Amino acid sequence: MHISRPRSILLAGAVAVTLSATALPAAFAAPSSTAVISEVYGGGGNSGATLTRDFVELANAGSAAYDLSGFSVQYLPGTPSAGSLWQVSALTGSVAPGGRYLVAQAAGTGGTVALPTPDATGTVAMSATSGTVALVAGTTPLTCKTAADCAADTRIVDLVGYGSAVVREGSGPAAGASATASVARGTSLADTDNNAADLAAGAPTPVNAAGETSGGAGPGDPGNPTEPGTVRVHDIQGTTRVSPLNGQSVTGVPGVVTGVRTTGSRGFWIQDTTPDADARTSEGVFVYTGSTAPTVAVGDSVLVSGKVDEYYPSATTQSITEITAPRVTVLSSGNALPAPVVLDAASVPDAYVPSAGGGSVDRLALAPAAYALDLYESLEGARVQIADTRVTGATTAYNEVWVTVKPNENPTGRGGTLYSSYTDQNTGRIKVMSLDTTRPFPVANVGDELSGTTTGVMDYASFGGYNLQATELGTLTDHHLRREVTRKQRDKELAVATYNVENLDALDEQAKFDTLAAGVAVNLSSPDIVSLEEIQDDNGAVNDGTVGSEATLKRFTDAIVAAGGPQYAWRYIAPVDGKDGGEPGGNIRNVFLFNPERVEFVDRAGGDATTAVTAVKTKKGVALSASPGRITPTNDAWADSRKPLVGEFRFHGKPVFVIGNHFTSKGGDQPLHGRYQEPTRSSEKKRVKQATEVNTFVTSLLAADKSAQVITLGDLNDFAFSPTMDALTDGQVLKPLITTLPTSEQYSYVYEGNSQTLDHILTSPGVIRFDYDVVHINAEFADQASDHDPQIVRVDVNAQR
């Protein structure tokens, strides 16, 4: 998937404060001639703003330096609720008499002009139009939420309420704050303890302690230096995943531009041509230019000034070390680039990442010779090169392709890389993207080859982790992967398949119906029963109370006939609107298709969205209380999730019980490449509960008839080696058929270059003779009707022990 990078919260605030050089005032109720808040701006980075972030400016009208050690600037929403808390930004240093002190706050995605170098930096996302800011002696959060209570708090040096703020000085808050306007005092910094009278709206004018203003003008401005500063890229990167200079400003960092990104997260990479001797410290770094397209070119020798920042694409990912709000001096152009580091089977370690006992690896010292992710982190932002790499994940719609630099690492029979356990990660997988948007990206399938050399910059993203941003892309060699066609079932064999058709509804294009239908009629050779996952209601994501799928299923079954298949009938139970998860408004459900010319569906009334089906013992064996039915649909295991569909069929006079499943997804699990190691699989708990419910139901069938032939199948969203599968097979009531295949064939889904199994077919001990097949028609191909491959089992229902 493609990652869109929201850089920060849009509502950000800025405040300028004038400081007193005298002792702490008793309360802000007494006007001060020295310590005042002189400007508040909450629109930095908003749409229409010029400045990229908010600020707090402190000014000292006194005659002596004012010590800010232990002080803070604090913010409260304009209309605080019971749960509203004051947000604290700690201060250090001092402000000179007659001088200013600038506190930068949260940045937004808009604006083009950076603040002057701030004297302190907070992360508070203040409103552009209404809020309260206080200068406080101390860093303990304030607790007052009314003007009267705050006036009584002797820690408050000064306070400004703006917009419609409840907490303010005087008769009313300062008016006129917006995305493009701050509220500020006049040059006299007069304080009458009446915010409405003392501050007026106008264009924001931040000034720091050096007298610099936005854009770099002003006394003491270093401008664009022509000589390198004292900090090098490897100093910024450091020996862990987090920069030792995080949050600090740097000046004149030298490097050669090695790559430029003009779309998405705009910016460019620089690399130092004089590396240090420490393998842990990368010599490359990303320079983030925000909404402004970079003006440099590959080969430019530059000096970069700005602020070091660790950007986390999400809460569970690792970070990207960046220089933000950059000022760039181009010294020369057309320079040679540093030689790339070659990544291959010999250089990439076999171990994946160090353990932090489930905690963060951020502060662990990198060990690039021991762990693959440590190696990739030690090369973050630097040039790397791969050669003749096999494709393990097909080209996506976002022009990404997964390759492996380790051709012998857990190969599948069709060219992929098998994901076989939680402890045996595939370390050679790398996602390749291209920085050259003028050339077509290669359309590759699994098993193809990216021949020759691919060179670029090592980057990190939320989806997929470390990736190569290519400046030179290898040539695609097509190995002509073909879609499989399974054999036709014999007359005595009942053929049962599972197929996740990826949110199919009646509003989809006919081409999707036709491709999926061909998969059933041709590639699966028209099974007798097809258990479908991800059939939506007839109007898909339209959320209007529709729950039926008749139009969707008619289009699908008609398309199967047109593709040469039989006229299938169907059975399903419509969910209660909005109760089964999936795409909002889609009312996703499981469905049985069956060929009435070959198999009989036993219709037995009583099944609905909320009634649990049960096993009924009869003189002839076991029967269902309702067919179709649902397994414990009101149990909390199925809350906001698809409920299993159970159907009773008869084939050649024998009853067969089919359970169609679609367990809850892996959404919310921490990524394999993330900052927390080992990653937490939080979604697993719910799937284990679901598997336990299905296991209990199958056990009840077998208790009534131990020879009952039960086929449990579907998208279980978990692996054959998972606790989910352990719960489903507990007591050996079900056998997972994926484990009967050769190891290199045990997959039906490809994710981030890993061939893995989320879909399964399991059978009860009463199923004696079977033939099982995963039919590879989707997951390994760039052109796919679904991201899942179907599976099929052919059962001889009359086989004897």
Mean pLDDT: 91
Any idea what the shape is? globular
The structure class reads mainly beta
- The radius of gyration over CA amounts to 32 Å
Continuous helix count? 8
Question: Helical residue percent?
Answer: under 10%
How many strands?
A: 44
Helix and strand layout, with pairings?
Layout: E1 14-19, E2 36-41, E3 53-60, E4 66-67, E5 72-77, E6 87-90, E7 94-95, E8 100-107, E9 120-121, E10 131-136, H1 147-151, E11 156-162, E12 182-185, H2 195-198, E13 199-202, H3 233-237, E14 249-261, E15 266-271, E16 284-290, E17 301-311, E18 320-332, E19 341-342, E20 359-360, H4 372-378, E21 383-393, E22 401-404, E23 429-434, E24 449-461, E25 465-472, E26 475-477, E27 493-504, H5 510-523, E28 529-535, H6 550-562, E29 569-571, E30 589-594, E31 600-601, E32 615-618, E33 621-624, E34 629-630, E35 645-651, E36 654-662, E37 676-677, H7 684-704, E38 709-715, H8 723-729, E39 735-736, E40 749-751, E41 754-756, E42 759-763, E43 769-774, E44 791-796
Parallel strand pairs: 1-3, 8-9, 16-18, 19-21, 23-25, 27-28, 36-38
Antiparallel strand pairs: 1-2, 2-3, 2-12, 3-8, 4-7, 5-6, 5-10, 10-11, 12-13, 14-15, 14-17, 15-16, 17-18, 20-37, 21-22, 21-24, 22-23, 24-25, 24-26, 27-44, 28-30, 29-30, 31-35, 32-33, 34-35, 35-36, 38-42, 39-42, 40-41, 43-44
